[in-house]
Amino acid sequence: MINENFIEACRKFLKPEQLLLDAPMREHTTFEIGGPADCLLKPASMEETQQILRLVKEYELPLTFVGNGSNMLVSDKGIRGVVVNFADTFNTIQVEGTKMTVGAGALLKDIAEAAAQHSLAGLEFACGIPGSIGGAVFMNAGAYGGETKNVVKAVRAVTRDGEVKTYGLDELELGYRHSIFQTNGEAIVEVELELTLGSEEEIRASIADFTQRRESKQPLEMPSAGSTFKRPEGYFAGTLIDQTGLKGLSVGGAQVSTKHAGFVVNKGGATAADVINLIHEVQKRVKEAHGVELQPEVRLIGEK
Fold first, then answer.
1. Residue among 302, 283, 278, 281 at smallest CA distance from 294
2. Which residues span the domain enclosing 210?
């Protein structure tokens, strides 16, 4: 499926471990589900990302970006074309005063910990979100009253032409689970965060509180993509699903969590088709019982 000349061109500047062919996406997603990606690339610098995007454009290949692989369900057929994965390489974290500059692949839990070490407040909400800062910007991730847009100052991205572009906060179009990157197809590579000085003791107390709440209520011990459904206006998706009596409902290896109905989990050997069929069944039954249409928060990607 991939042009051999494209592969050879990438091999000139990427190490063997940075270029994987027929890479099983179940190894690169928190759901542990997904068929093979034709070509998975792991750039280690801005320059490598620029080169990759220029080549992708030259060879007219489909392109997908992946961070920590949370909040996504990859189809059983996998992903055609090129997948660029920032998780293992773009994970630098720099702190200067109240400003943090972080690579797109840096995990939110690590950034929140670094912020706490420097007595910087504002990121406590992110301590348990199982994703990277790139994914958090892409989806404007939020929890416990906090949102990514509240702490972002600027984002550096690489365009499809391979050019570096910097976006200010007002250019990011950050809304509920939305950003400009969902429509412009550019690669988020670096994020500037602006935090406030606080008390490390109070910051860590908030992190401990949020962590305890997550661990007691969410099925963190099982593979999932995080919250499966968006919050319907005026309701909570998990509450509606629970009230409909759907906890434990299964299709194949996919199950509505018995711990938190807002999560679909992989109880073992689940396929993407299992998850999709379960999502459809939950949507149907909740609509019948409450008249509310649930919309998936998890992104469905790959070949249908």
1. 283
2. 93-217
